[in-house]
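FORM 7B: Structural annotation worksheet

SECTION A. Query
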Amino acid sequence: MPNFLVSAFINELKTARTTHGISEFKQYKTYNHMENKKEKFMRVFANVPEKVRGEDVVAVVDDKPFTWNTAMIEVKNNSKTGKKILKLLEKLGIV
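SECTION B. Predicted structure
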C-alpha cells in the first residue's frame, strides 16, 4: 500500500479511536502485525529449497503436521490454522 494511503488510513483510525473508542485502532494493529509475519514467512519460504518444502514438517498445529508447502497454503488463505502456524513460527524465531 502506498505511504500516503497508509498515512490517510492511520489518521482516519486515530479519528475513529477518539470518536468511537480504540477498538478499530487495535484491529488495525493486529492486522498489520499478522501481515508483517505473513510477509516474513513468504520471504523465508522463498529461500527454502523445493525438495525441503514438500518433505520437512515446519509446524504441528492441532496435532496435524504441516510441511512448508501446506503451511504456505494455509497462510495464503488467511485461515485460522494459518494464523496459528505464523504464531508458532514467530515463537520459534523463524518469522
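SECTION C. Observations
The CA atoms of residues 51 and 93 lie 22 Å apart. The two ends are 21 Å apart (CA to CA).

SECTION D. Sign-off
Analyst initials: ____
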